[in-house]
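## retry 2 of 3
previous attempt timed out at serialization; input unchanged, resubmitting
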Amino acid sequence: MSTLSSNVASKLLEIKAIKLSPNDPFTWASGLRSPIYCDNRIILSYPKIRNFIKDSFKSKVWAFGEPDVIAGVATAGIAHGALLADAVEKPFIYVRSKSKAHGRQNLIEGEFKEGDKILVIEDLISTGMSSIAACDALTEAGGNVIGAMAIFTYGFQGSKNVFDEKKIPLDTLTNYRSLLSEALETNYITQSEKDLLESWNKDPKAWSDTIST
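## retry succeeded, writing output
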């Protein structure tokens, strides 16, 4: 586990941007029961951690080559993408989940040129579908998507598959495995709770069904 991944995980737990509750699961919008809840918007309320996340993104940008444009995925990826774009002095745009129903009915807000190399920023990778939809919209509009970055990923195999299928490189500041290791090391969770959290990650629906019955 890298030092950066461990440090990011520690800070997300510290400010409760990620909460672990294996014995009293959360209910996601989908209805699934889950022992973890992630809300990276909370990062924006903590200036030191917000800057740490920005600098962490910045340290990874050049692995993709030099982007011409940074793109945020609405809504949670917008702020972090804008902060990164400012840090690397690049233009910023963002992609809506769907086109506006009024005005110019834009799906993409901001300007870029055909062929521009675009790095996509997201806050969280769950299924990966919202990020892929944003990448597809940018590609269809003439952009050259060179990769995507996010703060955290659950590491589901399905999300890995969709990025692989689209041949879009993905990197994240931290991940589920790092999070559990950090939580165990700091006594946030016990070993038995870590085992339970690992079983959820292997098959969230089956785990949810078991909890709900």
